[in-house]
Amino acid sequence: MGAADHNMILPRIRQLDEGAVNRIAAGEVVERPASAVKELVENALDAGAARIRIEIADGGRTLIRVTDDGHGIDATDLPLALSRHATSKIDGSDLLNIHSFGFRGEALPSLGAVGRLTITSRAAGSDGAAMIHVSGGRIDPVKPAALRAGTVVELRDLFHATPARLKFLRSERSETMAVTDTIKRLAMAEPGVAFTLSDTSDGGDRVLFRADAAASLADRLASVLGRDFAANALPIDATRDGFRLTGHAGLPTYSRGNSVHQYLFVNGRPVLDKMLTGALRGAYMDVLSKDRHAVAALFVTCDPVLVDCNVHPAKTQVRFRDAGIVRGLIVSGLRHALAQAGHRASTTVSDATLGAMTPERPAAPIYQMDRPSFGARATAYTAQMPGFAEAPSARVEPPVETTTDAPEALPLGAARAQMHENWILSQTETGMIIVDAHAAHERLVYEKLKAQMRDHGIRAQALLIPEVIDVGAMADRLLELDLSKLGLSLDAFGPGTIAVRETPAILGNCSAKALVQDLIEELEEDESAAPLSLQSKLDAILSRMACHGSVRTGRRMSAPEMNALLREMEATPHSGQCNHGRPTYVELKMTDIERLFGRS
Ligand code: ADP
Ligand code: MG
Prior knowledge:
By secondary structure, this protein is an alpha+beta fold. Helix content is 34%, strand content 22%.
């Protein structure tokens, strides 16, 4: 304001009434029905509930009801539960040492300010229940009520008092999905508690999610994320400087197209934290392409004084005293587990393969040849079976003579044949394996390049005649990167041109030009993405380089060569997926194959 304003009426400071204060706080605590559900379920968990039932209608907008069998609230405490900053969980002396979900004493008064809230409760050991109702901030007197045990909190017509908020709600479907996601996260945080979420819209009772009390985290994860996840995840347990990381992380081949299946917890509290998701991405960077996302449920635990969860009223963000340690723990803990997993690829890959291969059983007897769809189906079927197809390209290489030094007992079995100059068929004790030799080789070369770089720099091989390449504006960037420790030596040659003198020995006689052009592409891509650390940049370059070393593509391999590749895969970390997160092999168990032929 300018000096000309000095004769305006001086605004006076006044205390907002409690209703307004609560509505302001509600704006921070309750953004949408899912946040109200979160607060109410957390209260039930804090009360020691063993079973929690959640009912919603119209995406939670008209009704949210949470019923628990926890310790309840004493009738005389009910009005207090609705007043701001009143809590039974902390005494205020130590805000850094918190062991409950709630501690701010804000949720119930906030909900009472933006909806019609009724709490009915019977305190443990008390001989009767009581209820209290609040609507638009107006609190009614406590009344006796009927309830055998625990607490029922009912919230109707959320945001009826703040119509502006209502406008921000998404469709009923997406609000319902957000509520379901909230419950799933809390269910993972508390495996021992039974949860039921149902949709009671239009007088119905449709179960949206249900998890019985589980004996272990693994059991709970299986019931929330599916048995598939359990079969395709690695158990994680790592510690560093007072922090512990546990949980399960999905194999790279089990990745998804978005990050909604990443569940992170800090001291048992579900969090949505950028630093933690960034660390998760970093851990998989080497084994997943940029558009794929790991599936994981990870739990960071530490002394509560090492982390502040009082950053925001919704308590989904945290601030670690030393974020670097936590980041390092996640990256190294996960990388270690992924390396240990070695060549293991996801079981869903073979399930998906089988799904694609299994011919649908004809719905009608086969003699009805005039069914229009039968012909199409039959063609699709034969096309999958090279032996029967007419196309001349579908030929099978002659079988490999069996060697005794490639025992089928090894995980990737004994090579039996190669098809289309790429695919290796190998026999194991329990089935067969199809290896994408090209992808596998690429991965092995990448892992070797990384190992060489770690140990003593990548061995280079001089070109007989240096290759001069026109690289335009990228010349300076390439030269300043100093790729000589990557086995690539480049010199300035003229404006916009460089001379390649050496290429990595491991790549053999690769095309220097194609290699450099590919690296330029990687650098350009990198520029548009988030800035990477030098190490990750070098890894990305190595990964690109590895693609140029796949000499085995399009070449017939001898039996010893194939078996050597299989043995190398078994011994190499991360070899179950290629550098882009695709599987390098698929396993079909005998039982799967029998199923394919309708024999079981
Ligand atoms: P906070 O959870 O931060 O303490 P709330 O406003 O969510 O604040 O709840 C206020 C108080 O009401 C809690 O501290 C607790 O004593 C009591 N309370 C709320 N919900 C329940 C419940 N389901 N069972 C028992 N006590 C409850
Ligand atoms: Mg609470």
